[in-house]
Hints:
Strand content: over 45%
Order of helices and strands: EHEEEEEE
Number of strands: 7
Shape: globular
Strand order of the largest sheet: 1-2-3-4-5-6-7
Largest sheet: 7 strands, antiparallel
Helix content: under 10%
Amino acid sequence: GAFGRSKEDNVGAIDLGLRFAPLRGEFWDLIAKPRPHSGFHINLNGDTSQWFGGVSWAFDLGYDLFFGADFGLALHDGSLRSSAAGGKELGMRILFREGAELGYRLDSHHALSFVLDHASNGRLAEANEGLDSFGVRYTWRR
């Protein structure tokens, strides 16, 4: 994590995900009709990879700019505890995962955005370093 004491090399990581149709109904309308999402964060350097799922929101800012937010859970294959100096300690196998993005819609089908994702156990375990990922996201939508 960028904000933790231990680092992992995510330069060789791929993030693949799907966002589904917005949830409908009175409750979902009250919380701005989130979209369910699911995906994989695959670390190509042998560090922590994740499967994640949750809900996403997108808010138009005008001039084809948008802000997005995600909240959900992640299942990871990283270390829970580490005896190695500088080893990542995530504490639990399932983590909370939240994210934010700021993007630009190129047209009705394509967008580019800067993203920040964070996963941690929310201090439910003694070890709680978390995983932080910064990147650029390309989005294609039908």
